[in-house]
């Protein structure tokens, strides 16, 4: 080992005092506890969903199932409409997210330009919609008059531009160096060329953040299905079908004489579920797709929230 390396090691040992080591231990302990507190509810719900429903009523299930069983998932997926509803949920999530991100970014780019005369008026008009709305009945009448009731596009058009997403993207764009946009104009690029060739590639972090927000909202939404397409089975979504299953399980459990147990597929006694097991299984089924997507967007999500929240 060279003399310089020995000096560096001695210097490092001097710098890592007892106080620093105590701080590191406390820091690691806190992060481990935070991780346990964060992961335990999901692991516990997963264990309940994979446990026998009758055995779950006894309690005492924490990290692992006591009696392994797939009856809960068989009860959820025995409905023939569940797979078509999953397809509709995927379509509305993908299409809605892409269009929301694109349209929000275009409007945000417009109101971020200093030479846009009506930028303040448009910004205030959008912000007012965060505090006031027409109400449930006027909104339904508007959707009906626009011929969106009974249509797939009723899931897309009403939430095409979210004001919160708009403000985040606008703040991010305003932080971009003006010289980059001016160089594009000098080279002869118009507004559309500047937006698609310069602005979009530079705003990837905040667009990924908005995409995550919009995707989660679209995937978890079920009330709009209840309002506009409850009588159209071909337009039902996964969340709405799961909500109907949960409501049916609660109703059946309330009227049955089996202490809250519901007979599962083909009415077999050995395939029995409870509202508790149904809720746990529904949580896992609805959460897994989002959990699988989030790790790929995590680095963009953190950067987009930090930079996009600099300005109001």
From TrEMBL:
Classification via Pfam families: BPD_transp_1
Cross-referenced CDD domains: TM_PBP2 (cd06261)
Transmembrane segments: 21-43, 82-109, 121-143, 155-173, 194-216, 276-297
Protein name as catalogued: Aldouronate transport system permease protein
Keyword annotations from UniProtKB, A to Z: Cell membrane, Membrane, Transmembrane, Transmembrane helix, Transport
Residue ranges of domain ABC transmembrane type-1 in the record: 86-297
Organism listed in the record: Paenibacillus harenae
Primary localisation category: membrane
Recorded family membership: Belongs to the binding-protein-dependent transport system permease family.
Keyword Transmembrane attached: yes
InterPro entries named among the record's database cross-references: MetI-like, MetI-like_sf
